[in-house]
Amino acid sequence: MSAVEEKIKEIITGIVHCEGKALTPTTTWKDLKADSLDLVQVLVQLEETYGIEISDTDAEKLKSFGDLVAYIEGVVAAKAKS
Amino acid sequence: MAPPRIVVTGVGAVTAVGLNTADFWSALTAGRSGVTSITRFDASTYPSKLAAEINGFDPLKYMDVKLAERTGPYTQWAIASTVMAMEMAGLDMQKERSERVGTVIATTGDVHKIGDETDVLKARGPRRIDPLFMNRISAHMAPVQVGKFIGARGPNTSINSACASGSDAIGMAFNHMRLGRADVMVAGGTDTLVSPICVATMGLLGALSRDAEPGKAPRPFDKDRNGMVVGEGAGMLVLETLEHARARGARILCEMAGAGWSYDARNDTAPDPEGEALAMKAALDDAGMKPEEIDYINAHGTGTRLNDASETRALKLVLGGHAYRIPVSSNKSMIGHLGAGAGGVEAVASVLTMVNGVIPPTINYVTPDPECDLDYVPNVARKAEVTGIMSNSFGMGGQNCAIIFRRFTGA
Lengths: 82, 411
Prior knowledge:
The structure holds two protein chains of two kinds. Chain A is mostly helical. Chain A has four helices and no strands. Chain A has one domain (3-81): ACP-like (Non-ribosomal Peptide Synthetase Peptidyl Carrier Protein, Chain A, Orthogonal Bundle). Chain B is 33% helix and 19% strand. Chain B is built from 13 helices and 14 strands.
């Protein structure tokens, strides 16, 4: 598991309180029984952690754990290049 | 058609003198003060340095970690008090029609925290504020979360009429049932006045005691009283129609007999005895009771110079000579002023007074005041068969509410 993946898992678990549930690339918010308040908290904490801004359009596309990891890794890599 | 009779079947409280109903009642009747030096924040430069704080309350005893994270302390105390009241009432929501059970809770919410979050907003921008801000501070979240927690889908309302709120909420719940809108209502108040902005503001207005010695203030009805002490906590009742209580074989603690409201329409800060008397008279009329049928007053009794003298005058206006023959005591002498929560907790104390036949004292009472010349049950609890209790709540600005509990006779 990459560092980004580990960090995202830690953030999600801390907010959604889904300890004990497996987080795989295909795990969705629905699988975790997370609601919109959980989602907003996760996004705000990711923005804070990585110094980024996640647009509403992007956020809507992030349906699974895998989507989120790929998105953040992409943004972090792009940020490192710039 | 006569409205249905309403009874109380459960009570619950979280206060500075006890984190559960039994501890609260035992401290109250022992005359134990919950007032200490303020620990919540550094109050060294504040005009008042005392508070009746809730410390050691564990929300996880009553709810899961997620709900605890999404709620402010005022909501958590309301949930805990509701759980206790429902346990006492033996109310099983699985057996209830959820849309016939409602919730009315008085609170200001944690409005004191708006300033802190506004600081974050100004310093770090709109994307960095707490996403749970609304959930944690809004007044409506107390009844919302209590209603969700117990699964009550009937009327759900939050009330704020300053320090009259708690009684106001119970009166509103009472009337919901009398109008046929619900069979059961969970009602009361929850609040905190223990915050820097509140102590600063109320201190500036001269409403707070300047004393520094824990446990010696407030001194309701005493000649040397010098202001209220901020407090916090929650008190909730389970109220239901007599028919509903009987049908499920519930133990009836007492009857709720009446509620009355008034507004001073006089002064922003000074209380008006005639305005207060109007609420008490309205409650008596609503209950269809004579002054002589009231044998104990759970006073608003804040410990400010103006309130206690005004309340004493109002009691004489309404009760006449009978005012001199009945005990009047202030729970606030021990638990401080709970703001919107006060009427809720004092209703819990009123019901327990009737059930247990013990009147909690007014502590810190040393020197009689010619302006306050009634029987204030000084310092020591008193055994008494009480059959009619009026609980007074008066808000800054002049909103008044009085509620009446009566011994349930079955007749």
